[in-house]
């Protein structure tokens, strides 16, 4: 799908709004972004599958309440639209801050990467999230993973001989 496709542009805007809402910690706006359907689902990196609108929105409320600072820099954003359904994949480059040691200060900043698949459905009110799946990135480039690990042990080394 070409980036000029108005549907793809709309979906990418809805995807950006999702991350901006999370950055602001706006639970009411987050509620507006999800389908009014109990079939929604979410997988946060390292979490089990969350099913149902209440459970999903509760997870975001908890994340927003316990995160001092979070900012997403999205890269590799790709939107595909088929009828009333759209899939957006992207890399989440995340900068977050933990609890501060003293009042009025920001805690230490931590950077991390995750890849995400966000599925949207078109409604009369616009594109709404149906599913979010985030997964941590454990290696930067799978083509070079073997190079980083060093030479493979021979059979004698692997057997401890």
UniProtKB/TrEMBL annotation:
Q: Which residues form the SnoaL-like domain?
A: 11-138
Pfam families listed in its UniProt record: SnoaL_3
Gene3D superfamilies, per database record: 3.10.450.50
Superkingdom field: Bacteria
For region Disordered, the annotated ranges are: 138-161
Entry-linked PANTHER family: NUCLEAR TRANSPORT FACTOR 2 (NTF2) FAMILY PROTEIN
| Name listed for the protein in its UniProt record | Nuclear transport factor 2 family protein
Species of origin reads: Streptomyces qinzhouensis
Q: What is the lineage of its organism?
A: Bacteria, Bacillati, Actinomycetota, Actinomycetes, Kitasatosporales
């Amino acid at each position: 799908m070409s980036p000029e496709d108005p549907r793809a542009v709309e979906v990418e805007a809805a995807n950006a709004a999702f991350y901006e809402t999370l950055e602001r910690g706006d639970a009411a706006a987050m509620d507006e972004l999800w389908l009014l359907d109990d079939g929604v689902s979410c997988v946060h990196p390292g979490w089990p599958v969350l099913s149902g609108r209440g459970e999903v929105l509760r997870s975001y409320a908890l994340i927003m309440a316990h995160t001092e600072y979070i900012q997403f820099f999205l890269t590799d954003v790709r939107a595909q639209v088929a009828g009333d359904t759209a899939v957006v994949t992207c890399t989440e480059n995340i900068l977050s801050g933990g609890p501060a040691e003293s009042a009025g200060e920001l805690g230490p900043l931590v950077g991390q990467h995750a890849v995400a698949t966000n599925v949207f459905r078109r409604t009369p009110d616009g594109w709404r999230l149906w599913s979010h799946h985030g997964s941590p990135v454990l290696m930067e480039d799978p083509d070079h993973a073997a190079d980083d690990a060093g030479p493979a042990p021979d059979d004698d080394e692997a057997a401890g001989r």
